[in-house]
Amino acid sequence: MVAPGDPTFIPFACAQKMVDAIWADLGLLYPPAVEKLPRNATATMASANRLSLFLPEQTPSWCLLHELAHALTTTEDGQSDGHGALFMGLYVQLLQKYLRLDAAFLAASLLEAGIAVQIGAIPVFLDTAKMHLPKASSANKCVRTPTKMPLQTKA
User: Fold this and answer.
1) Which of 17, 35, 75, 151 is the most buried (most CB within 10 A)?
2) What share of the chain is helix, strand, coil (3-state, %, to 5)?
3) Shortest CA distance to 9 belongs to which of 48, 44, 57?
C-alpha cells in the first residue's frame, strides 16, 4: 500500500508546476493541464486522461503520480489501459523515481496482490522504434529502477 509510505500532499496551486516539472524531467512535451475536480465528484479522489488531470484542493503525492500514470497510458482519443499492466509499469516507475519507494517492496506487494506489471513500460503515445531502453538489472527482474525513465526525449 502506497499511502502510508508517503504522507505528503500537493496543494492545487502547485500541482500544474509539479506536473510540468515531472513531464519535462521525463523528456516529454505537452504536459496535461491540471484542472479542478468537479465539486459533485464525491466518490472520486481524482481522475485523468491524456490531456487533463482533475484534482481536488489537496492531492496526496502518490495520487498525483497515479493520475500522471493514467495520462501516460491514455491516448488523446481516450483509449486507456485502465489499471492494467502498462499503467502499473509506469506507475511503479513514477513511485520509485519521485517518491523513492523501494523497488523490492513494490515488487513483493504487487506479486502478493497478483497485480500484473509491464516491465520497461513506456507511454502509449511514443514511437517505440526511437526508444533506447536500458537493460534490466539482473538483481531486480520484477520492477525496474532506471536512473531516467525510458521515455522519448525532446527534439
Assistant:
1) 151
2) 35, 10, 50
3) 57
Query: Residue 46 is placed in which grid cell?
Result: 481524482
Question: Sorting pLDDT into bands at 50, 70 and 90, what band is 31?
Answer: very high
Contact 68, 94 (CB under 8 A): yes
Is residue 13 classed as helix, strand or coil in its secondary structure? helix
The residues, ordered by sequence, that sit 6+ positions from 105 with a Cβ below 8 Å of its Cβ are none
pLDDT value at 110 more than 50: yes
Sequence-separated (6 or more) residues with CB below 8 Å from residue 14? none
- Give pTM, 2 decimals: 0.79
Q: Residue holding cell 482519443?
A: 77
Q: Which three cell numbers stand for residue 145?
A: 529502477
The domain over range 9-119 is classified in CATH as 3.30.2010: yes
With beta carbons less than 8 A apart as the criterion, state whether 55 and 36 touch.
yes
Secondary structure of residue 71 in the 3-state scheme:
helix
Q: What is the pLDDT of residues 33-59, one digit of tens each?
A: 999 998 888 888 999 999 999 999 999
Cα separation of 149 and 152, whole Å?
9
Q: Which amino acid, 134?
A: P
Provide the residue ranges of all domains of the chain, joining segments of one domain with +.
9-119
